[in-house]
Automatic annotation (TrEMBL):
It comes from the Bacteria. It comes from Gryllotalpicola protaetiae. The keyword Transferase does not apply. Residues 19-409 form the Major facilitator superfamily (MFS) profile domain. PANTHER family: CARBOXYLIC ACID TRANSPORTER PROTEIN HOMOLOG. Pfam families: MFS_1 (PF07690). Keywords: Membrane, Transmembrane, Transmembrane helix. The chain crosses the membrane at residues 20-42, 54-74, 86-104, 142-166, 172-190, 223-241, 261-286, 298-321, 385-404. It is found in: Cell membrane. This is MFS transporter. One of its GO terms (molecular function) is carboxylic acid transmembrane transporter activity.
Length: 426
């Protein structure tokens, strides 16, 4: 067992540490590679002679393909265990991300970003499932917050890499993708040291004893209805998150359509600072969810987002834009801090490999057109209004959907109730 009996609430044994570190680093590097496109898609567009509106679809295709990866790798993980699919996944997306450095034109880069989306989709679901199955259940929110903060940490690293490689060293955007393979290899080394999930092993035994299939579990009415609900919840979450992040670097540098007109270096330093706010928010609210519950902290983060929108979107100086973006990242990403724990606790043991990841990534499909929509709205109503309207609507949706949903905070995955969940649908 690698749950509470194996370690005190905040201390992890070596297997738990390796699983947690590998999942954190894997998710961090996924975000690093994703946000490289956000930071340099204007530069890539200039090199390839492609408009910003068309370049925005590089992020869209990545988001659209993430459910494919979540489904393929997740279903594989529910059949053979978490460990092998995670190792294959990190090898796959590391190679694809590296090859982006050598794309000769927009079409090739588009195909590579499509393939990268498959790898990115597999990483979060499997990494979060393995981590939440291994860490102490009474502190899942704490570790959930740190794990989800890896997304913002990846964005922060991408911003720093841009400053060092492009702004300071004057190198091409291609170098950013070439260098991204190094930390991905570290994640791969850690993954090889992780033992299989005991929760998965116990569940497999139970499936055989009850002669229950994964398909039977998924198509149980209650579990299927919960799946659909979680997809809509994650659509609202992703719309809120991407609404505050994807177009913001472009808005900070734009000199038209109400853009802030800041220098690329200033805009990137603001991105560094607001990602620090995001990391602190994830860990803070994720930890609080262990005490207050997942629903309460999610609603708190989304509710605090609403009054910050004017400061975030309509400020006109670097200081206030920096403050507004840091605060809104604290609240929006803070709401996200509870999500790895929340989705895994709401998932049946038998299908936890794909259930959390696919709900998350299908929600991303709905939110995938956020950047193209904001980019298309900007010339018509201005960047500030394009961001304000999309973020406000998404935050309200998160509050309402969370309020009407359920939670399973701190549920024991090895409890009789969870293990008999298979038998109840057979």
């Amino acid at each position: 067992m690698t749950t509470d009996a194996a370690a005190p609430a905040f201390r992890l044994n070596s297997d738990q540490r390796n699983a947690f570190a590998a999942s954190l680093l894997g998710w961090m590097m996924d975000a690093f590679d994703y946000f490289l496109i956000v930071l340099v898609y204007a530069d890539i567009g200039a090199d390839f002679g492609v408009s910003l509106e068309k370049m925005a679809y590089l992020t869209t295709i990545t988001l659209l393909m993430r459910p494919v990866g979540a489904y393929l790798f997740g279903l594989w993980a529910d059949k053979v265990g978490r460990r092998t699919p995670l190792i294959v996944d990190v090898i796959f997306y590391s190679i694809v991300g590296f090859l982006c450095a050598f794309a000769p034109n927009f079409t090739v880069l588009f195909v590579l970003r499509l393939l990268y989306g498959i790898g990115m989709g597999g990483e979060w679901g499997l990494g979060a499932a393995l981590t939440m199955e291994k860490v102490p259940r009474t502190r899942r929110g704490f570790y959930s917050g740190i794990l989800q903060a890896g997304y913002s940490a990846g964005y922060l690293l991408a911003s720093l890499a841009f400053l060092l490689v492009v702004s300071a060293a004057g190198l091409s955007w291609r170098w950013l993708f070439a260098l991204s393979i190094l930390p991905a290899l570290i994640s791969l080394i850690l993954r090889t040291r992780v033992r299989e999930s005991e929760v998965w092993e116990t569940t497999q035994t139970n499936l055989k004893l009850t002669q229950t299939s994964i398909r039977t579990v998924f198509f149980n009415g209650k579990i299927l209805r919960r799946f659909i609900y979680l997809v809509f919840l994650m659509a609202a979450f992703n719309w809120m998150s991407h609404g505050t992040q994807d177009i913001y670097p472009t808005f900070l540098k734009a000199t038209d359509a109400g853009g802030a007109g800041l220098s690329p270096v200033t805009a990137t330093w603001i991105a560094v600072i607001y990602n620090v706010g995001a990391i602190v928010g994830c860990i803070t609210l994720g930890s609080l969810s262990d005490r207050w519950g997942r629903k309460a902290t999610i609603i708190l983060g989304a509710a605090l987002t609403l009054p910050l929108i004017p400061l975030f979107a309509f400020s006109t100086t670097a200081f206030w834009l920096c403050l507004g973006s840091a605060l809104i990242q604290f609240t929006t990403q803070g709401a996200w801090g509870a999500i790895p724990a929340h989705l895994n606790e709401m998932s049946p043991n038998a299908i936890r490999g794909f259930y959390p990841g696919v709900t998350y990534q299908l929600g991303n499909v709905i939110a995938a057109f956020n950047l193209p929509i904001q980019q298309a709205l900007a010339p018509r109503i201005g960047y500030p209004w394009a961001m304000a309207l999309t973020v406000a609507g998404a935050a309200v949706a998160v509050i309402l959907l969370t309020a009407f949903g359920r939670q399973a905070k701190g549920v024991d995955f090895q409890s009789r109730e969870k293990l008999e969940e298979v038998a109840s649908v057979s």
